[in-house]
Amino acid sequence: MAQSKPVVGIDLGGTNMQIAVVSPERTILGRAKKKTKPDDGRDAVLARIAEGVQEACADAKIALSDLAGLGIGAPGAIEPSAGVVLEAVNLRWNDVPLADLLRKRLNMPAFVDNDVNVAVYAENVMGAGEQSRDLLGVWVGTGIGGGLILNGAMYYGTFFTAGEIGHTILFPGIPLGSRSLEHNCSRTAVVDRIVRLVKSNRRSVIPSLVDGDLEQVKSKTVAKAYQMGDELTVQVVDHVADLLGIAIANVVTLLSLPRVVLGGGLTEALGDALVERVKKSARANVFPDKCKQVKVVATRLLDDAGALGAALIAQDRLG
Fold first, then answer.
1. What is the pTM of this model?
2. Rg of the chain over CA atoms, in angstroms?
């Protein structure tokens, strides 16, 4: 029997959390956005989640008791059936029973999945995935996450960690902290590299875009500099896109995938420029040539993908 009450979907990122009250018809009724602030500790993050749910309910003009339950997408390795965050690097969490903690705090059923898994699920049901039977999603934000749909269903793998493309190793011979896709191609890595190069006296428009405060460089700053043709930014971003395309090509080659969806804050900010460069790199590095038909497309649901996907997961599991 389809759920007749709204649910709340939570996209818990390393920097921000997006919270949405979602109707049974999959429309967003109310929203809230809060900073995650993982350095404040687990309990403080949980308190902000609870506050955000209350705020989203107020925005939707409903009571907390009107909700059927909640779904949350959390970064890192998740065991969905147990609702446990096994390891979340960006939150510095290990073995956190998130579903139980939220169930007790908010007095409603709670379901947990990986943040990119839920975003990819929403894109496949409602957006750029176009209900593909086989699909890779790659989200480029604070870190890099991935999700896989195989044979029409979310694929978790034996250890519930399938899709963690951000933690694949690109450069095994170099020092720790610089080896993985996430270390090199996340929004955090892009900003850090540009700032470091600016501080080493490389010319760029970046300082002028943030009034000299390099701590204020964000995805939108990078995108604006790229659109202006800033040589340093173009070099960094194009190199990152090429590396991302190579990593994607490896997965496409391994699994013979027909479609890849790119999302996350950096993708949304840079738009077609990033997607086209990644697509070109991916198609250049797949095997065999038949795989060059792979479609690499941008998210359609944008910022809403994670919260909508978390809500869809809750609706599915509530029945």
1. 0.90
2. 19
